[in-house]
Amino acid sequence: MWHRDCSRTCIRGEPDLIYNRLADSLDESRATNARLEADQSLARTIQARLEQERRAIARELHDELGQSITAVRSIAGAILQRSAEQPGIHGSAQAILAMTGHMQDGVHAILQRLRRDAPAAHERVEDTLQAYCALWASHHEGIELRCAIEPLGETQGAPLDDGVGLALLRVLQESLTNVARHARARTVEVRIGLRREGVDRDGQAEIEVEVRDDGRGLGAQPTPGRHGLAGMRERLAELHGRLELLSPPDGGLCVRARLPQPVPVT
């Protein structure tokens, strides 16, 4: 009789086990898809920035080097016309004209390569982070997401270093993935901005990422390396940043990452 009851209990528990596995697999697939889309967005941001640099280099080549070569050719041409009876000077002028002609051809070829068609739009890191929050919310409709992201450059619109942008995105991704997988939360708040109080003696502000949920928290003694914490700490440490895990009085978990604000790329 006991064996029969045990068999019934085991059979009854199997659907729950299968359901839980399917749910975990679905959450993992959603998180992977969200990461891929965010990575593509960041890649587009980096590519746009590279293209912006290419266009700036092309302008410098055309306006500075190109015009200087043209000026040298004009001077050499004038010398050539007036040195017919001076073979030495005449030959040097011809050599200068030939050499600057090759230089012009080289500059023209470089400009052609630099000025290939490129996307004109430039997406800021802040926009990429905002887009990831929207993407995550669309995959986890059962969790209310409140997202507030402030401009992170010295002035609004100033782009950040790509390494910093990638670190911010990774911290946001890992924190929200943990909320979906482990927190059992109903609400999560994301705040990203500049923190100026307590800045260092050089007056450098910090970029702060804070992800706070109302779930079950991390536990009394979290396992080292659990939930991607070690990876987040290592990535932040490379940029002289730090990671904090806080337990708010009203429950849940607050993940807070801070790193020095770099000099904006101009």
TrEMBL record:
GO terms for cellular component: membrane. GO terms for molecular function: phosphorelay sensor kinase activity; protein dimerization activity. Residues 60-263 form the Histidine kinase domain. PROSITE patterns: HIS_KIN. The keyword Acetylation does not apply. SMART domains: HATPase_c. InterPro entries: HATPase_C_sf (IPR036890), HATPase_dom (IPR003594), His_kinase_dom (IPR005467), Sensor_HK_TwoCompSys (IPR050482), Sig_transdc_His_kin_sub3_dim/P (IPR011712). Pfam families: HATPase_c, HisKA_3. Coiled coil: none annotated. Keywords: Kinase, Transferase, Two-component regulatory system. It comes from the Bacteria. This is Histidine kinase. The lineage of its organism: Bacteria, Pseudomonadati, Pseudomonadota, Betaproteobacteria, Rhodocyclales.
